Amino acid sequence: MKNISVAHSPDADDIFMYYAIKFGWLTPKDAKFENIAADIETLNQATLKGEYDICAISFALYPFIKDDYALLKTAVSFGEGYGPKLIKRKGTKLKRNFKVALSGEFTTNALLFKIAYPNARISYMNFLDIEKAVLDGTVDAGVLIHESILTYDQELEVEREMWDVWVELSGGGLPLPLGGMCLRRSIPIHSAIDYENTLIKAVEVANKNRKVLAPMLLEKGLIRVDAQTLDKYLDLYANDNSVLMSDLQYKALDKLYELGYKNGFYENLIKSQDFLIPTEYEELRAR
């Protein structure tokens, strides 16, 4: 039996969507999934180096790895009227070239931020350190992600919602693409289809059994927040829209890649659905 590395972030939605597999509720046919947890930019950088078979990534990274990894249709996080927040100390005014902390060069929020604030001076750091960096004055502002958008210090205030940046840049009417998963192209296609289907079922099972799974994660100390915050966070990022990408979500991804291309961050303009695992292969083989 093959060991397949599956890397995800330690934030609540990723853990929630993966742990139906970790708890043995679902397994792939011919492999054992071995999970690794790391912050999202660490995973982005690891995927650039080809370290993992399956990996959670920021959607903004994908054009850089498209030749080596296929885009998965499941375990996705989109914002619908919400998302990362640009925060600062209360009562302060940001200069044109303010210092800002971002959670990583290849994160989606970094791409949108750099388009919207071309004169800002950027520092990259672990997302868990951003709030403190703003509070102690290391930076003037920072973009909070994951659970931090719900739990930040009362001495801080929102300068701008990245959702509003997205609406302004995209023209509106689309969800904000944040994170998804990818799979190494060298994996044989029949195995790739099985692994993706296993992950789809895991997200679906987790979503349907949230009242059972969420308390289990809290009891085992796998989640950084309390039960009430977890419930609110899962409403945002691990829900029915996370199970399988919709046409509207593909359209949003394409808009993200169009914005990146037009602003000089990508060499080529890509369409997201051209880079999915071709599941029609199984249908053809069954005939």
Automatic annotation (TrEMBL):
It catalyses: cyclic dehypoxanthinylfutalosinate = 1,4-dihydroxy-6-naphthoate + dihydroxyacetone. The active site is at residue 146. Keywords: Lyase, Menaquinone biosynthesis. Pfam families: VitK2_biosynth (PF02621). Signal peptide: none annotated. InterPro entries: Menaquinone_biosynth (IPR003773), MqnD (IPR030869). GO terms for molecular function: carbon-carbon lyase activity. One of its GO terms (biological process) is menaquinone biosynthetic process. Transmembrane segments: none annotated. Pathway: Quinol/quinone metabolism; menaquinone biosynthesis. Catalyzes the conversion of cyclic dehypoxanthine futalosine (cyclic DHFL) into 1,4-dihydroxy-6-naphthoate, a step in the biosynthesis of menaquinone (MK, vitamin K2). This is 1,4-dihydroxy-6-naphtoate synthase.
